[in-house]
Amino acid sequence: xxxxxxxxxxxxxxxxxxxxxxxxSEGDAATMAELWAxxxxxxxxxxxxxxxxxxxxxxxxxxQILRAEQAFSxxxxxxxxxxxxxxxxxLCYEGGETEPAHLAATNVFVLEEGAxxxxxxxxxxxxxxxxxxxxxxxxx
Amino acid sequence: xxxxxxxxxxxxxxxxxxxxxxxxSEGDAATMAELWAxxxxxxxxxxxxxxxxxxxxxxxxxxQILRAEQAFSxxxxxxxxxxxxxxxxxLCYEGGETEPAHLAATNVFVLEEGAxxxxxxxxxxxxxxxxxxxxxxxxx
Lengths: 140, 140
Description:
The structure is a homodimer. The first copy, chain A, is α+β, with helices and mostly antiparallel strands. Chain A has three helices and six strands, in the order ααββαββββ. Helix content of chain A is about 30%, strand content about 40%. Chain A is globular and about 40 Å long.
């Protein structure tokens, strides 16, 4: 059982997480930049890639990814929120359109100026793709 | 520039992170269990594998991995600590013995009863292995 405050926080984290996948799918670099923390330190590990540390390196990588011609919709399935006070982890699967999910992801958010902002994204390949849950939306 | 308190916290987080790689390399399930948080929610994403949520599932996976006959030393290179109050992220590369690192990892710790305990481990393959820094120890 979780209390109403925890449920409210989890809902707010899931909304921030959904905004991340929507910004990715829509190639929206401005929203992506808005989503990442300003004060807290940020980092990112794209699939197969080395660790990126710092807002400049992380947002630079997203600008590069989002302006690629072959942009694609990225879906988030089965998101689980782990609340750690003013920090939240989201564990989920990522997949394109109606394909089975091919990546597992860790997204970390901090509560900054009243908003849940991203401080870390780590995505890596699944050995066996995971079928899309029947109830999942394109962006959940 | 970081202050003495931050440097102290970062040092303590790096010690907890080193304990994780030492427990792995020594096949020490008791220390591994000791390292993971008791109160805070825990999760784990092993390379290529689905998300594990909860202490029972996570520690069960470690017991299974650590009792495997082909145990091996796992080295942690180039660890970067990101402090978020009572939560800390460690980003690093993982490799065996003297081989180049073949995994990138996110390790998350919380300050619980005065000790930095693990709440999440996510490791995934690097597309291009990264050479071991000349100064890195087997467990740093």
